[in-house]
Design a protein that fits this description.
Blueprint lengths: L5 E4 L1 H14 L4 E5 L1 H5 L3 H8 L4 E4 L2 H9 L6 E3 L8 H8 L2 E4 L2 H9 L6 E6 L11 H12 L4 E7 L12 H11 L6 E2 L3 H6 L7 E4 L24 E13 L4 E2 L5 E2 L4 E6 L16 E4 L2 E6 L7 E4 L11 E7 L5 E2 L1 H7 L4 H6 L7 E3 L1
Parallel strand pairs: 1-19, 2-3, 2-9, 3-4, 4-5, 5-6, 6-7, 7-8
Antiparallel strand pairs: 1-10, 10-13, 10-17, 11-12, 13-16, 14-15, 14-17, 15-16, 17-18
Helix pairs in contact: 1-3, 7-8
The structure holds pyridoxal-5'-phosphate (PLP).
Pyridoxal-5'-phosphate (PLP) binds next to α9 and β9.
Length: 361
């Protein structure tokens, strides 16, 4: 028998979550953001349920090739544009749209030989300070691009740093509006957090990433259920042993958890080598046979320990849900596990380890 750990990708949930993005921005076109191998879900698995999107946005040229190989003829956007001049050949060949965020990318375009002009998304740095042209440089960049025969339509784009936080999008939106006021072209500004939390923002193309995968972009302010999102990934395993700790006994490396009184614990076949966060300390939620329990002590490479007090009937073979959908209607939001580990649902999904077998459902 193989080790009992397994990840499930819920295709219906992906389709449902994408539909939520559409409902939140009924007049916009929707990019399904599938970078990082569809946030760990697998581009090939996520493709069918997400193909109701208007386009696929990603970073990696190899991932763009995979989307084309699946038969997608619609828009594909490279969110960071090209990394070197010759990447433009692939853009021409596969008809990829690409972000332009720096002068060098304009130089490369100017020197590129193509029959078909490229659709580009000119990126403004409105305050995130990672990529994009400052307000002062944006117009010159637009004029340069507009003069190039290699360039077709120019759209305008920016990215929010705090769409999920109290400060929100107002400051960046004001900067973007001021810098782009008299420039023509479609706008793409909203990520999931802006799309759900700031529906008043004008974004002709919204970029729906995390919400497609069923995690709340603004957790813990809101949970996924609040936004009508369903888990797209479940990580589950089984108990492979149980132990009884006497008062004063400890469990796991570093003996960080000590039992105050006798208690039953379970050992689940899941550890950090499966992508479960090692920083998840005692008290991280976990389901055993659908009943909410807590982890104990340190997560090791292949195992973790669970307090079985709430589920007396649990035994080796009992189903353990690390995140996602458990037996019956039970659900453990990935965001809660991430929060207990001081991280985000994003990181947990993306970190699912290769050794975990994945099935679709
Ligand atoms: C990843 C990414 C997104 C999607 O963000 P979510 O928070 O996952 O919705 C949108 N825009 C850009 C530029 C990105 O890199």
């Amino acid at each position: 028998m193989p080790r009992p750990i397994q990840a499930l990708i819920h295709l219906d949930a992906l389709a449902h979550n994408l539909a939520r993005a559409r409902a939140a921005a009924p007049d916009a076109r929707v990019w399904a953001v599938v970078k990082a191998d569809a946030y760990g879900h697998g581009i090939e698995r996520a493709y069918e349920p997400l193909r109701a999107a208007d386009g696929f946005a990603l970073l990696d040229l190899a991932e763009a090739e995979r989307v084309r190989a699946l038969g997608w003829r619609g828009p594909v956007l490279l969110l960071e544009g090209v990394f070197e001049a010759r990447d433009l050949e692939l853009c021409s060949r596969l008809n990829l749209w690409h972000v332009v965020h720096c002068e060098q990318q304009i130089d490369w375009l100017g020197a590129h030989k193509t029959h078909q002009p490229h659709r580009v998304f000119l990126k403004m740095n409105s305050g995130m300070n990672r990529l994009g042209f400052t307000a002062a440089a944006l117009r010159t960049a637009w004029v340069r691009l507009n003069a190039l025969p290699q360039v077709d339509e120019i759209s305008l784009m920016t990215h929010f740093a705090e769409a999920d936080a109290p400060d929100g999008v107002a400051r960046q939106m004001a900067a973007f509006d001021a810098a782009t006021r008299d420039l023509p072209g479609e706008r793409s500004v909203s990520n999931s957090a802006a799309l759900l939390g700031h529906p008043g923002v004008r974004s002709d193309w919204v970029r729906a990433g995390i919400q497609c995968y069923g995690s709340a972009p603004d957790h813990p302010q809101h949970d996924a259920a609040h936004w009508g999102l369903r888990p797209a990934m479940t990580l589950r395993t089984r108990l492979i042993a149980t132990q009884v700790l006497g008062a004063g006994e400890t469990v796991g490396y570093g003996s960080t958890f000590r039992a105050e009184s006798p208690m039953r614990i379970g050992i689940a076949a899941c550890g950090y080598a499966d992508g479960y966060p090692r920083h998840a300390g005692t008290g991280t939620p976990v389901l055993v046979d659908g009943v909410r329990c807590r982890t104990l002590g340190r997560v090791s490479m292949d195992m973790l320990a669970i307090d079985l007090t709430p589920v007396a009937a649990a035994a080796p073979g009992s189903e353990v849900t690390l995140w996602g959908c458990g037996p019956g209607d039970s659900v453990l939001p990935i965001d809660e596990v991430a929060h207990a580990a001081g991280t985000l649902g994003y990181e947990l999904m993306c970190a699912l380890a290769r050794r975990v077998p994945v099935a679709v459902q």
